[in-house]
Amino acid sequence: PEMIVRRILYAMGYRYRLHRKDIPGKPDLVFGPSRKVIFVHGCFWHMHPKVNCPDSRMPKSNTNYWSPKLLENSARDQRHRRALKALGWQVLVVWDCETKDRKRLAAKLQRFLADS
Fold first, then answer.
1. Which pLDDT belongs to residue 87?
2. Residue 82 and residue 3: Cα distance in Å, rounded?
3. 82: Cβ–Cβ under 8 A, 6 or more apart, which residues?
4. pLDDT tens, residue by residue, 7-62
5. What pTM value is reported for the model?
6. Residues 6+ apart with CB under 8 A from 81
7. Average pLDDT of the chain?
8. Which of 4, 22, 75, 113 could form a disulfide bond with 99, CB atoms 3.0-4.6 angstroms apart?
9. Are 5 and 40 in contact (CB under 8 A)?
10. Would you say 53 and 98 are in contact if contact means Cβ atoms under 8 Å apart?
11. Contact by Cβ (8 Å): 23, 84
């Protein structure tokens, strides 16, 4: 999914840095001058809150392992987003399931990155 987002952005003429370690959460894509970041999240690993996302459900087996792990991933993501916003960064999360409709994804990325 991250490669799909990166290819779309590159084709649109956007340039970015990858996984900058000096800002909270090491965002997948960083647009430094405009202070915008994009996280590309897998629906399963980051518990996509969308109700009808088929990949975001909790596994039925080994719940003692999966439940705390996935809940902590989600909590950590939220902490990182809050920290970034507190530092003046704008944050966009692109979910794995959103990469299937590339035209719609390109429009979402363009809206986020357009100078405002």
1. 97
2. 25
3. none
4. 999 999 999 999 999 999 999 999 999 999 999 999 999 999 887 888 888 888 99
5. 0.93
6. 25, 39, 91, 93
7. 94
8. 4
9. yes
10. no
11. yes
**Cβ atoms within 10 Å, residue 38:** 22
Cα–Cα separations (whole angstroms), residue 113 to 13, 63, 71, 106: 11, 39, 30, 11
Query: For tokens 């596994």, what's the residue?
Result: 59
79 token code pair: 């902490």
Strands 36-41, 29-31: pairing is: antiparallel
Amino acid at 98: E
Question: At residue 111, what is the residue type?
Answer: R
> Tokens at residue 12, please?
């649109």
Strand-pairing partners, residue 92, are 38
- What single letter denotes the amino acid at residue 109? L
